[in-house]
Write a structure and sequence with these properties.
single chain; 253 residues; alpha/beta; seven-stranded mixed beta sheet; two-stranded antiparallel sheet; 9 strands; globular
Length: 253
């Protein structure tokens, strides 16, 4: 479902078509990710990124949802955040990690302090390019810079500062059940159908919630990262999603 022309008040639009939706569907959404008693099933690229981190690393999961990635690597500590209070309540079950309610554009974390950050299926919910770039910049700004040799400091990771993994829905997914592909509308509404028992207990009723997504074309995520002040380390495509790892510009060379 295409959105047509987006409204000028992007914040109000996202509140209605993203934040309020996830607040209402949080429990049902979480149940479709995985059961808390089971081992999580992360995207392979997310699992690879988290498992590659040195023991003792401290990082962020920005837009954590139900916290499904918090238990992937037990040797790192993650501060998770999400705009949905109801999803954060679910994520809080993943101890010893911390979870807080926060907006991607107004993160409460100290700048330049973290070894890593992940943002999985979040940035595509921002409804203008300016806001998506702002969201990426906010993620990058939390990352630790490489220690300066001129200042007589040493970096424990061999000279590389903090690194972020950003994962977004792709426009190019013609083999999926959605069938989107190059040339299609990039700003779309994606329905979430939530079924519940009627009061008579015998029948089900379905309610549909429409969520806003910006579908990223090939190369667009990298463009947004560079515009936001980042440098690409690696990027690729993983089953209907574009992803990239990035550092703050100026860390290499």
């Amino acid at each position: 479902m295409a959105t047509g022309t987006l409204p000028q008040d992007a914040r109000a639009y996202e509140t209605q078509h993203v934040h309020e939706v996830y607040e209402q569907i949080a429990s049902h959404f979480s149940s479709t990710r995985y059961k808390l008693t089971d081992h999580p099933k992360p995207w392979p690229i997310v699992e690879r990124f988290l498992q590659s981190l040195p023991a003792g690393s401290i990082g962020l999961d920005i837009g954590c949802g139900n916290g499904k990635y918090l238990s992937v690597n037990p040797h790192v500590f993650i501060i998770a955040s999400d705009r949905s209070e109801n999803l954060v309540k679910i994520a809080n079950r993943h101890q010893p990690h911390a979870s807080v309610v926060a907006d991607n554009l107004l993160l409460p974390h100290p700048l330049g302090s973290f070894d890593f950050a992940i943002s999985i299926a979040v940035v595509h919910h921002l409804s203008t390019r300016a806001r998506r770039v702002q969201a990426v910049a906010a993620i990058l700004e939390t990352l630790r810079r490489t220690a300066s040799v001129e200042e007589g400091q040493r970096s424990d990771d061999g000279g590389v500062g903090g690194k972020a993994l950003i994962h977004v829905w792709a426009l190019e997914q013609k083999s999926s059940r959605r069938g989107w592909d190059e040339g299609d509308e990039q700003d779309v509404m994606v329905p979430w159908i939530m079924k519940s028992r009627c009061r008579d207990g015998d029948n089900e009723e379905a309610k549909t919630f429409n969520r806003y997504y910006h579908l990223y074309r090939q190369g667009e995520l990298e463009e947004d990262i560079v515009e936001a002040g980042g440098s690409i380390v690696e990027s690729g495509y993983e089953k209907d999603n574009w992803w990239a790892t990035a550092v703050r510009s100026g860390q290499f060379g």
